[in-house]
Structures are given as C-alpha cells and as structure tokens.
C-alpha cells in the first residue's frame, strides 16, 4: 500500500513538472511573438515615414506643364525641375502617328506652367506656307520658317552661315529662342548683336 502511494506521488510530481515546462515554453513563445510583432510594427512605421519624407521632397521639386496637340494622352503632367520637352512628351504617351515632332524643340528645358503643343504634319505645313506666303509684318526674319534666301538678307549672314542655320534647325527641331543662334559655329556675339533685332522665332 505504501509503495502504491509513493508511485502515485512520483507520477503527480512528474505531471506537475511537465505542466510547468509547457507553461514556460508557451510563455516564451508568446514573448518572442510579441517582440517580433513590435519589430515589424516599428519597421513599418519607419517605412511609412520615409515614404512621406520622399514624397514631400519630390513634391517640392515638381513643375507642371500642359501637353496638347498631336500626342496620345494630352493633359497636365508633373516633371522634375530641369526636365526637357521630350520628357513631357513621354509622359503624354508620345506623339501620334500624324504628328510633326520637328514642330518644337524637344531638347528645350521646360518651365513651370508651360504649354507644349505638338503640331500635326498638316498643321506644320500650313504654318510654314503661311509664313512664306505672308511677308513678316514686323520685317523680322523667322528663324524657324525662313529659307536660305531670306536668311541671307540678314547682316553678316552669307551662304555658308545661312546653310549652317538651316542645318542646325533641322537637327534640333527648330529654335526655341533667338539666342540659340550663338550655338552655331561661326555665329558669335558680334554677329548676333547685328541681327538680333531683325530675327524672331515665332
């Protein structure tokens, strides 16, 4: 009888020890799970804060331009400062099949609030014909529509310089401003100062 009691006591002790062990492991598991969750929450918070910071920085440097005419998705687009016209055209889905990409200077830097209009080939041809058919009312030579003979009427512009102007216009898609003339080899400030009041780009 005494042996039976001893055996029962030993079994009960083993059960208690086993139960305590399980409780200890469960508590440890809960603690580890809690620590892992806290770490994940902290990381997520840091990521969100970084996203807000980056968004704020980007927002401060954005400028907005309106792209219209012969593009696939006309509209207002935000670009980083220092972007070029061709960046805006890419955001607008690119030019349409009937567009005349030489109707504007795609390398030109865009400015906040600028409107970029892409002409169709037909519109560009009509504008060029209109420029030729109607003499310049103000007497100025349009650098973007003038032919070689018109360019040679300018002081200091002979056959070679006139051809250089036409070549530059073809390569760069036109003149954005009259000062672009000084980017052409052979036309420096001296020549430019003589003709600046006799030319225009629009």
Question: What would your notes on this structure say?
Answer:
The chain is mainly α and 202 residues long. It is 52% helix and 11% strand. It contains six helices and five strands, in the order H-E-E-H-E-H-E-H-H-H-E. The strands form two sheets. It has a three-stranded mixed beta sheet. Strands 4-5 form a two-stranded parallel sheet. Strand 1 (62-69) and strand 2 form a beta hairpin. The longest helix is centred in the first third of the chain and has 60 residues, at 2-61. The chain is elongated, with a radius of gyration of 37 Å. It starts with a helix and ends with a strand. 15% of the residues are buried. Residues 23-28, 30-34 and 48-59 have low confidence and may be disordered.
| Number of helical segments with 4 or more residues | 6
The best one-word shape is: elongated
| Strand composition percent | 5-15%
Distance between the termini: 118 Å
SSE class:
mainly alpha
Which sequence of strands runs across the widest sheet? Answer: 2-1-3
For the biggest sheet, the summary is: 3 strands, mixed
Mean pLDDT across all amino acids: 77
Unreliable stretches covering 5 or more consecutive residues? 23-28, 30-34, 48-59
What is the alpha-carbon Rg in Å?
Answer: 37 Å
Number of strands: 5
Element order: H for helix, E for strand: HEEHEHEHHHE
Helix content: 40-55%
Give a short overview.
The chain is mainly α and 202 residues long. The chain has 6 helices and 5 strands, in the order H-E-E-H-E-H-E-H-H-H-E.
């Amino acid at each position: 009888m005494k042996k039976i009691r001893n055996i029962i006591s030993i079994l009960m002790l083993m059960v208690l020890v086993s139960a305590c062990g399980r409780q200890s492991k469960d508590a440890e598991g809960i603690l580890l799970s809690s620590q892992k969750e806290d770490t994940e929450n902290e990381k997520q918070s840091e990521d969100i804060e970084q996203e807000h910071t980056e968004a704020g920085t980007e927002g401060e440097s954005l400028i907005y331009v309106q792209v219209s005419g012969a593009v696939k998705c006309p509209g207002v687009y935000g670009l980083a400062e220092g972007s070029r016209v061709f960046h805006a055209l890419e955001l607008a889905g690119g030019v349409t099949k009937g567009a005349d990409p030489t109707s504007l200077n795609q390398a030109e830097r865009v400015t906040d609030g600028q409107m970029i209009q892409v002409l169709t080939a037909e519109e560009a041809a009509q504008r060029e014909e209109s420029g030729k058919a109607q003499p310049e009312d103000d007497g100025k030579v349009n650098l973007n529509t003038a032919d070689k003979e018109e360019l040679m009427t300018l002081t200091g512009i002979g056959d070679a310089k006139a051809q250089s102007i036409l070549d530059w216009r073809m390569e760069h898609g036109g003149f954005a401003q009259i000062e672009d003339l000084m980017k052409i080899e052979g036309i420096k400030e001296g020549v430019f100062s003589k003709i600046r009041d006799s030319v225009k780009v629009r």
